[in-house]
Write a structure and sequence with these properties.
single chain, about 120 residues, alpha/beta, 2,3-Dihydroxybiphenyl 1,2-Dioxygenase, domain 1, four-stranded mixed sheet, 2 helices, 8 strands
Length: about 120
């Protein structure tokens, strides 16, 4: 496994948790636990994603050049995940489509401006 977990920071955890609760519901990913600092961890024992306040106590900000990709099971799932992100207030960064032979990707930003990607290699 290449990636075990990733996190993004938030300055409004309640709004962020509502965004990710609804977004991850489109792909069957649920809350693993609420983080003791007020954030939330989603996923499975093998892979997790968290939304947290920055540990250093400073404001959360977007990492320039940072992006987190979610490998999904079908193009329809990529389309639905992307559409849900936009419906929840996320911003478009590239509509679903072919990005190379057998590579289907969609890009968006969450409420804090973190860049995220839904993708599938191969599949239908």
């Amino acid at each position: 496994m290449l990636l075990g977990y990733s996190t993004v920071g938030s300055n409004n955890l309640e709004k962020a948790k509502a965004f990710y609760d609804a977004l991850f519901a489109t792909i069957g990913v649920e809350k693993m636990f609420d983080h003791p600092t007020g954030g939330r961890i989603y996923g499975t024992p093998g892979a997790a994603f968290g939304v947290l306040k920055p540990h250093n106590g400073k404001d959360a900000c977007v990492g320039n050049g940072s992006m987190i990709g979610f490998g999904l099971e079908s193009r329809a799932q990529v389309d639905a995940f992307y559409a849900k992100a936009l419906a929840l207030g996320g911003a478009d960064e590239g509509a679903p489509g072919e990005r190379g032979p057998g590579a289907y990707f969609a890009y968006f930003r969450d409420l804090e401006g973190n860049k995220l990607c839904a993708y599938i290699f191969g599949g239908a």
